[in-house]
Amino acid sequence: MNTPLTPIDWKRRAVKYYPNKVAVIDGELRLTYRELGQRINRLSDALRNEGIGKGDHVAVILTNTHEMIECFFGIGQLGAVMIPVNYRLNQEEFTYILNHSDAKMLIVDSEFIKPIEEIQDRLSNIRKYVVVSRGDVATSLPHLAYEAFLASGSAEEPPGVDIDENQIITINYTSGTTSRPKGVMLTHRNSFLNAANFLYHLGVTHDDVYLHTLPLFHVNGWGGIWAITAAGATHVCLRKVDPEAVLRIFDEYGVTLLCGAPTVVNMLVNAPGASRVRKGIRRRMAVAGSPPPAAVLKKAEELLGLEVVHVYGMTETSPFITYCEWNAGFDRLSEEEKTVIKARQGIEQMFSGEVKVVREDDSHQEVEWDGKQIGEIVARGNAVMAGYYKQPEETAKIIVDGWLHTGDLAVVHPDGYIEILDRKKDIIISGGENISSTEVEGVIYQHPDVLEAAVIAVPDDTWGEVPKALVVVKPGASLTEKELIQFCRDRLAHFKTPKSVEFVDSLPRTATGKLQKFKLRERYWQGKEKRVQ
Fold it and tell me: Which of 197, 307, 361, 482 has a 20 to 30 A CA-CA distance from 43?
């Protein structure tokens, strides 16, 4: 009988071989792998006592804490499915995801109790709430305290569960091009092989100290949850990215590895105290999105000893499918040439999978490797999701003949390195967060004074790109930028709210009435080679 590929095995391995190694640093708390394993087992047992078993769904709204790490393994080793929810969402989004996901239980940080209190009557499936808190909690939400919940369970290894590697381990909700989020079903096999990529291409070792700056609801921390545990390395939890705190943690704990949005690199090199960070430690950081400018990369290396590795992927691909790895041949290039290469998405790095850039003529033929012919990035193989939860029609739109269509337009250079130039889909990626422009437009159209609206991405020095609204006001109506932004803030997560509004007389459309967003974007991206950041 073949042993299934599941990242849950890595918890067992770490506890067996590294029981006394520090597994997690969370503020003043230190947990060894033995202690972490016992807490995970207690969580599993407590969940089982509440009727949670194989195939059941448990939603989690937590920041980067040891409890979040415990949930990934404690839920997963039961054969149950974890729903990591973005804590930055609003009430309507929480309601939709918690209901659509069929979650039977919610584990939530006390910081986010208020919106849950207000929607609890609308959460039809959830029968138990567990609240994580560092102190007393005043709430009308009927709940159990997380630590008391764990105390009710056994620290012994739970009874074995027959796990199929193709069953779902997490459902990660992501913004799409419609107003409703889509639940990306990731399997045990997806997560195992993505973490194997992470281990190999980022050179993870047993001695690494990994800082979780990236929110762990983001595709399971991009796989860091699984990969760091696999190596028996140390997780350092960080609830909120504060550049000065990060620099202090770099020195205090000897951080060697982290992942995050490019904006984090810029924040670090410009933070007070960057020049005082202890030198001599080789630090690596994987970033996705637009690579930081050359000057920022140079500062990161000089001030922080930080080697930045550009990666590419999406929630639907677990997420990484390319890494911009450096090879010795690049060392002979000029600084300008090196910067150009670092700006690329890299080359295919999937285990048992394939990535290519295909022509937009339905032939599925690869574009020429000339750095000029533009096509769409497609992928297939073990990193590709099982599909969107309860949305087969949406799944069929993105996975065609076994190939997942990313919607990203790119060229391939003669050395095989892919470089993204634009996007087909209406997704704005701001500071690592996906924002559906059509969702934002839907909110703007709710304003009684708005006749037409379009939301596009515009360049931003801090966040890479941010949403901008172009609005046609109804005749005789009066509306200000400040009023419309506040209107959106009252109805959207703040990171989705347009950062600026421009009032226009009309919006460009085709003869059939289709909005031509590329014409709107042109003015703001003029002079830039790429139409993404």
Answer: 197
